Amino acid sequence: MSFKILLFLFFLRFNHMEPRNNTQISEFLLLGFSEEPELQPLIFGLFLSMYLITVFGNLLIILLVSSDSHLHTPMYFFLSNLSFVDICFTSTTIPKMLWNIKTQSKVITYEGCITQIYFFILSGVLDIFLLTVMAYDRFVAICHPLYYTVIMNPRLCVLLVLVSWIVCILNSLLQSLMLLQLSFCTDVKIPHFFCDLSQMIQLACSDTFLSNMVMYFASVLWGGGPLAGILYSYSKIVSSIHGISSSQGKYKAFPTCASHLLIVSLFFCTSLGVYLSSAATHGSQSSATASVMYTVVTPMLNPFIYSLRNKDIKGAMKRFFVMESLKRPIVQGLERCPWLKGSKLQSLVVIL
Fold first, then answer.
1. CA-CA distance, 256 to 248, in Å (whole number)?
2. What is the pLDDT of residues 98-138, one digit of tens each?
3. CB–CB of 157/164 below 8 Å?
4. pTM
5. What is the C-alpha to C-alpha distance for residues 150 and 146, in angstroms, rounded to an integer?
6. Residue 322 CB neighbours (<10 A)
7. Pair 262, 305: CB distance under 8 Å
8. By the 8 A CB rule, do 133 and 180 touch?
């Protein structure tokens, strides 16, 4: 019913739209963190390092899950999807910021800003959905272990990820379309290192009531709903772990969800902190600094948390590097054989 009311207000607003401002803004200015020239190389080096660690760390998780048969389970299927989304999440904002620092320019085009907002919302909300799905996976694994393989079958896993993608695409499209209806005046300075939806709405000179309503409704629906689901899942998990009589059984059950719980805490606590701080200091650059925690730091820490606290990932990593170290001298030896050339050599390398 609430969705129908929202659609009714959406069409009502468009049918009674006020005349738009004729001023056409072609670009915005991203103020970033600091305008002091001596700090720019330090900021560039710091964010480039964090971005490369994020990309290569999450790519390693994807490579391990896809190459090791021991990790072909629902939990690691969702983890590989989360790693892919984390790469997209940071790639939406950091490369543009690094390019602006390198070229000593703060300009981003209007089209580039809308595109950045679209993919930022898409990957951010998709991150939340995947964390929620992973919480449900841990809930089934610990609370209903005998039915785990039946409930979390491959078809359901693919369906959960597919539905998450579809919902997030539609949500991001709605938010972007609402932003396209706004007109902007001469104030084009964004006190952030990327195009933030809330601050873009603040810069608009036209009526922003409907845009704000859609943004807050989506935030409550796609933020509060998944968070409630995660909290419910872990409340059941904690009660199930307390119900285990042996201390050894408790020790085995808790580490399976400890890594995921740590990532959930980091993501939601930092994003909630950013939301509250931006509300307290409206339009301040302090919100840009706080946003680094959930846009850059959390995706960077995900591979470390799972690799350091997860025995399966550490085992897969050892097997992967051991196999690579054994494969290299074998391939080099085959290349020296005069009777193995061309397609025969390539076939053996593929088999190895």
1. 13
2. 999 999 888 999 999 999 999 999 999 999 999 999 999 98
3. no
4. 0.82
5. 8
6. 10
7. yes
8. no
